[in-house]
Amino acid sequence: MTARHPHSHPHPHPHPHPHPHPVDSPVPSPVHARPFSVVICVYTEERWDDIRAAVGSVRRQSLPALETLLVVDHHPDLLARLVREYAKEAARGEVRVLPNAGPRGLSAGRNTGIAAARGEIVAFLDDDAVAERDWLRVFDEAYGETGPGGRPVDDRHVLAVGGRTVPAWASGARPGWFPEEFDWVVGCTYRGLPGGRVRVRNVLGGNASFRRTVFDTAGGFATGIGRDGDRLPLGGEETELCIRLTDAVPDAKLLIDDRAVIHHRVPHVRERFRYFCSRTYAEGLSKALVTRSVGADKGLASERRYTTRVLPAGVARGLRDGVRGRPGGFGRAGAIVVGVTAAAAGYLVGRFRTRGGGGALTPGPLGSGATVPDAALPDTAAPGAAEHPAAARRDALRRGAAA
Question: Where are the coiled-coil regions (predicted)?
Fold first, then answer.
């Protein structure tokens, strides 16, 4: 959980579920609002209720989306089930279900959604998260102010806007040992990020939006990095994209507005110390790939402040709480030390394993996704996807982690 901000909105339930009442029809959109395409990448039927809750939260936005794109990652049964579930919405053009047109993994799924998107802005929402009602409206406001007659006046320098992601713990409460400084481990906004609407190096991919033209300029998400189902949880694809974007457009502004809130479900398995260790180690592997592509100066710029200022303050706070007898204080201090150590170990292993081959990560192609027919059902799970060069690079790191 991040430091509390004045815009904080409490979530009524620790574990998001589909709303019990039928999904309302979208609220009429303001006349001059920017059109949003919302991409939700999905990969398992085990998250069926979460997927429906995520889609429902998009359809209840105060600023309705132009469309919701559900991109299914090489899972024919889930694809067919979603096609049936959203047949009526698909007929109205409100929800479209697409198979991932690239290699297996989150990055290629996002690229498929980008290619198919019709909106001026492409927003991304995790499949196990629900967005608050004004999520898209806050994004829209950040891309420019309202001018005379209610017309939006664009700040064309703003190319991406992210939001604040709040953990919804399956157990009902944060584990006492789990430090807020490491909420990124469970895909959430962490303590140390500034509040309000601020300029940042990169947005976080599960709660983010980009101008569609960004991807024409900088390319898509690199498919040699990022999550692949339930395998070793590599990440960092949004960091690499954002750095590549600001290299291509030096005067670009990337913002986070903490009023654009989503609530991200944290299952029991991710509340465990074992997952904490594996995820921090995997983050080190990911940073090795990112810095290999964009250089250490850019790839680790934000991390330097985080490790030299935010984390020492967190250790001191935990020790102080422990001395005062507050539950979990010593555990949080210890977890910070363990997390830093695991991430550093992963980074060193990743640098070692990528030292001799490959160069920069390759942006994933976008063109193939644009022509995928709605509700297309693949006969196979992408033959040959494992041989994709980028996927092979990612798998090599995972094999090293398992060794």
Answer: none
